[in-house]
Design a protein that fits this description.
Strand content: under 5%
Shape: globular
Number of strands: 0
Order of helices and strands: HHHH
Helix content: over 70%
Distance between the termini: 67 Å
Mean pLDDT: 80
Low-confidence stretches: 16-24
Largest sheet: none
């Protein structure tokens, strides 16, 4: 009976975790993340959500990330897990900055 209860508990735990994994955001390649960020910056400029200095700063950071990726790829023939995690973390940070700048209620003339 004890073994049966442990099996039922394990099955319920497994069933509870599967939807959480399935609902996680899909994994994106570095190239997809770069294209997505570039598109969001361009949209921000077009819609007036980003001022010119904000867009220039974000594009500068984006270009630095692209340069770092090229450097990582040249150094070892591809990206290892440490480099991939580092790039993911940096892309996450830049993505948060793009979001913050686009939603800071500052218009394209720099007024609030």
């Amino acid at each position: 009976m004890k073994r049966f209860m442990i099996s039922v508990a394990a099955a319920s735990l497994l069933a509870a975790t599967i939807p959480a994994v399935a609902s996680a955001a899909p994994w994106q390649t570095i190239n997809q993340r770069q294209a997505n960020l570039e598109r969001r910056i361009d949209q921000g400029v077009r819609k007036g959500d980003l001022t010119r200095p904000e867009a220039q700063r974000l594009r500068g950071q984006f270009n630095q990330l692209a340069q770092l990726e090229r450097q990582y790829r040249r150094s070892g023939g591809g990206l290892d897990m440490r480099e991939r995690r580092d790039l993911d973390r940096r892309f996450d940070r830049l993505s948060q900055q793009v979001f913050a700048e686009r939603h800071d209620r500052q218009d394209h003339r720099g007024h609030y």
